[in-house]
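Researcher: I'd like a candidate sequence for this fold, 461 residues long. If you have to choose between options at a position, lean toward the conservative one.
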């Protein structure tokens, strides 16, 4: 594994005086228009909350006879217990296994075995003696085989397939877990029935076999150069915060020693209506949809959610470097700790990133990629709730030193600091941004994504 990856980190991203620019902002509406959205960057939507605290965002988009739904949970990898990392992601998988009514042929008989499996995993979690662990694993395997006789694998997916679902999926990030699906417009009530049951009474069956799936996902990440790179950068940027001190997929040791009890505890703590949102965009009647949601989701019971206490990171003093080995082309990455999502500097930093890398108009593309000074290069921002970061990367040409591509990237930043760029570039990237926003409003998935982010960050769309 010859390639060596240096990661350059600095304490702050310095900005020179920049011309003022207007960032596009859509405004919240108490009720949405019943006509198709106009060709603008504004998203019409309805936002309301149920008595149990569940937030709901609805937007009508009659371009196709379907709707796209997301159920967002305001918790992700950063809320994982320190001794059981990966729980949020593993839980995401388990919420496709059914409930006490879906995915079982005899829940009463299955539950007796499931309770034993939960207790056995908890004993295993605390046991350190190899011989005793081996016996416990055999016992868990026997219980799992017996419980599987009552399970109906894939019934949840098959149910959705019969209803005409497309794109049934979910994702877990540091901050959130989101479940998503596209459905025919005439299946709205059936969707509400299934989802209200799914999140109210889940059963984490087939836990042992799903562990193999999660573990294989972890193994792939250990060989993925992008994951290796990201984790190396995050560990340097955030030495105390879970953004860098743990990973969303969890550690290998924790995945080898899972705790079902901790998973159920995570579910009970964060999967509560006052910590969740329903987001729907599509060919829907807003009033009828609101009534259906009130009918099926009002029975969920709210519970207090503990606030996340973000560890304080010390300022980065000067340059820190880390080298990582992986199979693949060499790459240099620069990472700057910036500001969290709700910071007033976020719009300016977003513009900085667009000036660096925005289609064919950014400085990196104009000054480095098009003249073939490097093989490839780019930048991207990350604005999380507790901290933010700006990333720049470049892939050197054959025989080119990594130090040279690092300096080329820094040169582009320095041009922005000194204002050494054509003002028309700023206008061009702002136009590209606006066009992208308008195009995004044609997609139900993109519209739902905007509303989900509004929920997660407690802002208007």
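Model: Candidate sequence:
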């Amino acid at each position: 594994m010859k390639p060596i990856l240096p990661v350059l980190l600095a304490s702050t991203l310095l900005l020179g005086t920049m011309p003022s620019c207007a960032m596009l902002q859509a405004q919240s509406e108490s009720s949405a228009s019943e006509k198709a959205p106009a060709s603008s960057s504004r998203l019409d939507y309805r936002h309301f909350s149920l008595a149990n605290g569940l937030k709901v965002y609805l937007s009508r988009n009659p371009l196709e006879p379907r709707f796209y739904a997301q159920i967002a949970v305001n918790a992700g990898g950063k809320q994982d217990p320190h001794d059981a990392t990966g729980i949020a992601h593993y839980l995401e998988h388990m919420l496709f296994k059914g409930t006490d009514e879906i995915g079982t042929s005899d829940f009463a008989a299955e539950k007796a075995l499931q309770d034993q499996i939960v207790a056995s995993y908890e004993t295993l979690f605390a046991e350190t003696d190899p011989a005793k662990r081996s016996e416990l694993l055999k016992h868990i395997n026997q219980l799992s085989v017996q419980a599987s006789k009552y399970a109906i694998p894939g019934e949840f997916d098959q149910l959705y397939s019969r209803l005409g679902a497309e794109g049934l999926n979910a994702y877990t990030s540091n901050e959130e877990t989101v479940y998503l699906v596209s459905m025919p417009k005439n299946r709205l009530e059936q969707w509400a029935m299934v989802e209200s049951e799914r999140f109210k009474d889940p059963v984490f069956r087939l836990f042992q076999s799903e562990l193999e799936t999660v573990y294989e996902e972890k193994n792939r990440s250990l060989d993925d150069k992008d994951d290796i790179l990201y984790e190396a950068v995050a560990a340097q940027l955030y030495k105390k915060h879970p953004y860098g001190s743990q990973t969303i997929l969890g550690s290998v040791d924790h995945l080898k020693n899972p705790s079902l009890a901790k998973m159920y505890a995570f579910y009970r703590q964060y999967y509560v209506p006052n910590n969740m949102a329903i987001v729907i965009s599509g060919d829907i009647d807003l009033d009828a949809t609101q009534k259906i949601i009130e009918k099926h989701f009002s029975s969920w019971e709210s519970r207090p959610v503990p606030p996340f206490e973000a560890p304080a990171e010390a300022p980065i003093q000067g340059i820190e470097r880390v080298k990582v080995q992986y199979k693949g082309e060499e790459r240099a990455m620069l990472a700057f700790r910036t500001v969290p999502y709700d910071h007033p500097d976020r719009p300016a930093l977003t513009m900085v990133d667009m000036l660096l890398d925005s289609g064919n108009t950014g400085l990196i593309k104009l000054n480095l990629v098009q003249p073939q000074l490097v093989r490839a290069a780019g930048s991207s921002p990350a604005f999380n709730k507790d901290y933010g970061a700006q990333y720049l990367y470049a892939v050197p040409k054959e025989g080119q030193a990594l130090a040279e591509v690092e300096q080329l990237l820094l040169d582009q930043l320095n041009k922005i600091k000194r204002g050494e760029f054509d003002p028309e570039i700023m206008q061009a990237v702002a136009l590209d941004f606006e066009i992208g926003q308008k195009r995004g409003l044609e997609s139900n998935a993109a519209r739902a994504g905007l509303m989900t982010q509004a929920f997660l960050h407690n802002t208007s769309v």
